[in-house]
Amino acid sequence: MSYDSSSSQQGLVLPTMTMQNQIHELAKTLPPPRKQNTACDACRSRKVKCNRFPGQDKHCLSKNYPCTHFVQQATSEKKRSSAIRRPRQLSSAGSTPTSPTTLKYASPPEKAAVLASPHITNGLHLPLMVRYGFYPPITLSTPTREVLSFIFAPPDNPNPNDKVAYSPGRPKFPYEAWGELASKLEDDNFRAEFALDLVEVFFQIVHTRLPLLNPAQFRNRLQLQGNSTDDKPLHPALVATVLAWGTKFSEHPLLVADRRRPGGQSLIAKTLIDRARDLAEALKVHRIPSPDHVVISLLIEPLQSQNPDDPNGFHGFWLTSATRHLLDLNINHKSVMATILDPESRGTMIFAWWMTCICDAYASAYYRRKPILDDDDYDIDFYVVDSVSAEMIDTHSQTPSPREQLEVFMLGYYRAAHSLARTVRQMSRQLWKPVTESDGIPYDNLIAFTTALVEWRDEFLTIVGVPTNFEGTWDFVSAVSSCASDATYHVIWIILFNALDDFGVKGTNSATHEQIDTAKRKIADEALHGALRIAGLAGVLTSNGYLRLDPAVMHVSCIQAGTLLARLGRPEVSNCIAGLDQYSHSYEEAGDQANEMRRSFTLARKGELELNHMANVTPRPVASPSAMVVDDHDIIGTNGTSNGFSSPESYMYGR
């Protein structure tokens, strides 16, 4: 290679003529440059050409989608910003100048819009509002009626492999996948009326178990009847979450038509749950601490799948978010809680804290993980919040509001629940760690756990559990609350039994084999008793149709108890299976869990399913299907409904 001397002196190295010819020949073999993709966001997400044929509108415009180019703009902005490189400033190494791109996308949380990501590559990762064809993007100041346009937007094309798809292939019209009446959602007034129905179902069913909202305030701020006020619109993710809950239990004709599919599942409910979660993520509910975000997170968590193996279940994610928010807001400090002057706000945060604290402990046992909170992470007293204000009372009901009932019950119930939560928290920290899995559970820990559980039973179970008789009238709230408290205690024995069966007992010099077998037999007896107890309670609730209206309060108990009974070949598992079948109307995975119990029961009766470390201390008798710990003769009437129980329909609709 030769160099031009004049160019060389200037620091430039030029190729020879031969090399230039080689480069020119190589360039001829390269493929032509890629054609610029000018499709709009909506057409790009649906993978169709954004062309205009003679005499026709563009594809997006013909489908009433906005012809926007946010993805293309974001890509161009990324290229432009990457092309500009600031030179190194060696003299000021400590300075970190702010990137122009950072400034462009920075905005205060209260004004933050759902912005397009500069790293978008395909339709699955399109901005939320673009993916659903909704623009402008939703912010915290978006009126609720506009939020409904997104929540009730037509569904994406159904997946032919989806077992709840309404029909295979491409829908004939946008709402076809949601049933024969779903096209009514195109009308703005119908969407508002449908939303109001779902809100009422939420307050009648879900709010009774999770009273985190003020019914009167929520209805006043909903602003769907054209009665505009100066109040700030409700948080869009909160509205979406409340409506998603309503679709699980509503008997609106639109949802009844949508459930006319194999399995009786509602595709509308499934879609609205996804959109509520999408809205919460887009508006950074999981990242920014605020009272609204605490409430939204706690309401989203039990909406998720209750199957531990479901990759889309997000087990504990939203509960963890709520826990972190409460800690960041210092709600765990008595001194900070006392500074909240508004009684309603203070009461909501107190209830949110105790719900989070207790659920964190129970979830650690259910899903085999260590709890987030420790006993010394808070100093809040167990006390009843201030008297309820007039506006908090639900004027649509003649009975005391759920919050009023809970405040009356709070001292006894939360003392009991917190005491059990502390025991469960200690169990989880010892059970769910690698050394226990490999070496076994220390004998001393087993004795400590069983002693603590027995002490709790003697002190609290008669107060918060199911009474020995059902005198008087039992409504939905009373029945499910007592049964859930009762079942929560008994399911802990089952969880301890399963851990012992999986891990065994760690060898120790402080206990003989006889003492170890005695401890194991005690846990096996309590676990079997607890499983039978839960099966009996599930049978009572199922016979009254209450599990169809239960927001997953008894779900985990039915799963744990039914699984153990199935493994033991006990026919009482039929109660748990029936309960899960009833749950499947609102929780899709419950039907699969019921089928798995049937399969396990069949294998156990054939002798093909055996226990591990607990096999030598667990009796395997064959009981009659009618054998239950709860005496059904005194509870269930001859017509299949329980004496003293009100029907779920009368509770739900006031009939």
Describe what this molecule looks like in 3D.
This protein has about 650 residues and is an all-alpha fold. Among the domains are: about 160-165 and about 175-285, no CATH class; about 300-410, no CATH class; about 435-655, no CATH class. It contains 27 helices and 2 strands. It has helices spanning about 5-10, 15-30, 40-45, 60, 70-85, 100-105, 130, 145-150, 190-205, 215-220, 235-250, 255-260, 265-280, 290-300, 315-330, 335, 345-365, 400-430, 435-440, 445-465, 475-505, 515-545, 555-565, 575-585, 590-605, 630-635, 650-655; strands at about 440, 505. Helix 11 (about 235-250) runs parallel beside helix 14. Mean pLDDT is about 75; it is low at about 1-15, about 80-125, about 160-170, about 385-400 and about 625-655.
- The termini sit apart by 97 Å
**Global shape:** globular
CA radius of gyration: 30 Å
Q: How large is the share of residues in beta strands?
A: under 5%
Tally of DSSP β-strands: 2
Q: Helical amount among residues, as a percent range?
A: 40-55%
Major sheet: 2 strands, parallel
Q: DSSP helix count?
A: 27
Give the overall pLDDT as a whole number: 76
Q: Order of strands side by side in the largest beta sheet? A: 1-2
Order of helices and strands: HHHHHHHHHHHHHHHHHHHEHHEHHHHHH
Spans with pLDDT under 50 lasting ≥5 residues?
Answer: 1-14, 78-127, 158-171, 383-398, 623-655
Structural class by sheet pairing and helices: mainly alpha
Relevant terms:
655 residues, mainly alpha, two-stranded parallel ribbon, globular, disordered N terminus, disordered C terminus, Carb_Metab_Trans_Reg
